[in-house]
Structures are given as structure tokens and as C-alpha cells.
Write a structure and sequence with these properties.
GO molecular function: carboxypeptidase activity; serine-type peptidase activity
InterPro entries: Carboxypeptidase_A_C_sf (IPR027461), Class_I_gatase-like (IPR029062), LdcA_N (IPR027478), Peptidase_S66_N (IPR040449), Peptidase_S66C (IPR040921), S66_fam (IPR003507), TAT_signal (IPR006311)
CATH architecture of the largest domain: 3-Layer(aba) Sandwich
Order of helices and strands: HEHEHEHEHEHEHEEHEHHEHEEEE
Family: Belongs to the peptidase S66 family.
Helix content: 25-40%
Number of domains: 2
Shape: globular
Strand order of the largest sheet: 7-13-14-6-11-10-9-8
CATH topology of the largest domain: Rossmann fold
Number of helices: 11
Strand content: 15-25%
Pfam family, one: Peptidase_S66
Keywords: Carboxypeptidase, Hydrolase, Protease, Serine protease, Signal
Number of strands: 14
Distance between the termini: 30 Å
Length: about 350
Amino acid sequence: MITRRCLLKRSGRVLALAAFPSLALPRAGTQAWEFLKEGDVISVIAPSSPIDNPQERYAKIRAYFARTPFKVHIPDDLIEPTVPLDEANTIAKRASFVHEAFASDAKAIWAIGGGGWGASMLRALMRYPRPHKVKPILGYSDVTALHLYANAYLGIPSIHSVVLGINGDISPGWNHNGIDTALALLSGATPVVRYRFRPLNATARHKTAASARIVGGNSLLVSALNGAPGLTLDSRNAFVFLESVADDPGRFSRKLMGLTYSALIRDCAGVIFGDVIAQGGKENPPAIQEQFDDIVQRFADQFAADKIVLKADNLFGHGPVNLPLPLNTAASFHRDGPIVTGSIWANRQA
């Protein structure tokens, strides 16, 4: 776990940043949002499904952050499950919590869980005036709906990471990463993350360097909202990141082909595949894994031969490991032999 002393010591080397008076996009290369400092607040939201035992999770989250330099704000009525759909709350309240988090003094917004229903609140959220403050949204899976809202609709960065209520520190599942690696990005203790990727096609094996931001997330949300006004990702000079869960090989292939024939893949610089998991919380059976591998490799060789296609092995998504991946920020990629290393800024505007 990252302690108060560790965070303050490491983040003390980061220069102070100017606040943004409006959501006019920062210049390329500048900081899009401020690194968190001691006393800063993180707003907790529930945009999707409810988590189990919410009051117990709230207590664990508060106890965790009491040992850090930061505070969390969890509304008392954050989770009020709906019937019969079992959403975390009504569409109106889920959208209002996100809007209020942007309007508040909190410096970051972290989803407590994923699941489903996030896309249903986007229209209500987009009816609010655009926020005046740039803040990172954190989460993964169904929280991809909010990554699309941030990256496509608002044009600001976000962070694909563990959710706050289900992780190795609060309530471990099969995905066992804790909070500290994402918190290091928020604090500036780790302003740049570096990951090693495996090139999947000739273009990726021959290209020595590239500079491009990363956009994307869960393949279901990316494909479902592809073409939606205001929520379609601009993939020009960008790598499209895709991870998947709860799809058999046939459904995953159909979604991937739909994206392949669209501007999202046509215009992108490359594609990064995270975990592709048939059933959450379980390893893929060997025969299913072989089919997923073949679908991804065929895509790289036949449908995206002119793109840099990379595989992030056991790094991001619904597998055992889910490390933080900044989205819509400046990033660079360098190949050294059979390995491509990506350096991705936490908050530098692309």
C-alpha cells in the first residue's frame, strides 16, 4: 500500500500545476489535471451496477484512505438498487452524482464498481452543462461508458483502472490488484507508466517508434456506442485499446469485425488488445483460448495489416491483473527487438 509519507515524498518532485478555469482543452504537452496533494478529495460514483454489501465496502474504502494523504467522499444515497433491473441507482441519480462530482472541489472521480447499465445514463449526463473542471475518471469494464464520455464528449483524459469497491485492498476477486498503483498516478508519484507489449503483425515488428494516445476500453461498450453522436472515439493518431469479458469467441469476433469496418479501426494508428475473457473470474478453457488467440491474430494479419497491433499479456482487463492505463494522454512506443515498450503519461494532454 502507498503510505502518506511515501506519496508526499515522491510527489514532492512534481511541479505545481495551474488550475483550469474552464473545460477549454489544455495545450498539447501540458498537464490536463493537477496531481493530487495532501488533503485532496476523491469523489466516489456508482454509474453502473450495485456492489454487494455497500456499507461494508464504504467503511473499508474510508479506512484505506485514512492511511493515505487523501480523502474520499461517498454520498450516503450513492447505491439504492433499482427493481427489476438492479442498477446502482436510477438513471437520474447516477447521472447527477457524476455531474456533482465534476462540480465539487474533489480532484478525481473513481467508480466503485462496474457491471452494467452505465450507457443508459449518458443521455441524462450529457444534458447537464459541460463541466468547468478537468478531472480524471477511474474505473474499467462498464465504466468504459464514462471513459467515452470523458475522452470523446469532453475531450479530456481518464484512467482505465481497478474500481474502488472491488480490488485487492477492499474486496478481492479474481482480479486482485490493489488501489496503490492507480493512486500513484493520481498523486504524481508515478507520472509515467511503462508497459511491455508483444507485437502481433509485421507492421508492429518493423516499426521502431510511434507517438500516439490511447483510447478505448471494454469492447462491448466501445462497439455499442461506436457511431453514437458525441460518444464515438476519434481514433486518428491513437491506439485503440480493447479488452473483453462475457463474450464467447463468436460474439467477440462479430464485435471486432464491426469495429474493423468502421472509421474507428480504419483511421487508428494501431490496436492494443488486453485480456479477452469468456467468463469473468475464470481462466479461459484451452479450446476457447485458442479461438480467441486465432481471432486476434487473424485480425492483426488480415484485417489490420497496415496497423501496429500489440498484445498486452496479463496487464489490463478482467484477468488476474488489471494495472492502470491512462487514456487520451500523450504516449510513445519504442520497439527493442521482439518487445514494444509503451510510455504513457498520467495527465499530459496529447
